[in-house]
Amino acid sequence: MSELIHSIAMTPEEFNYEIDEPHPILVRLFEQIAIHASFYRTIMMEDKLQHLTRRMTKIMEQFITSGVSQIQADGIGFVVSTDIAIRYFTMAYMGVIGWWLENHMPYTPRHMAMQLTRMSSRGPLDRDPYLEKQSSPRP
User: Which residues form the domain of 92?
Assistant: First the structure.
């Protein structure tokens, strides 16, 4: 897992808010997991190896925490408690990675990175119906 840690090490220069391209760190994350797919599939699917799954979860949590810290350093706030946001994204990433492995990686690492980039920055919808509802006149 040290290779995974190294692959997601983030420098301030790499951190960006581009949503039309997959985040380079997420590309490296999925590429690293793809290279060692049988190992990661085993630790994520095998109940007897929960200690390794917890270790991977902790690695993901540290990665997410680093991103949150960078966002906050850029003066961007959160509308939810950051500890909840960190846990939410950590478990979402772990769930998506598990699904990807369980389904024999039906998408490329780049495609998966793009999906998580979009989900992390804008969510799954092409527009925000809640904001539209607030701005529309009430009958």
Answer: 2-7+20-135
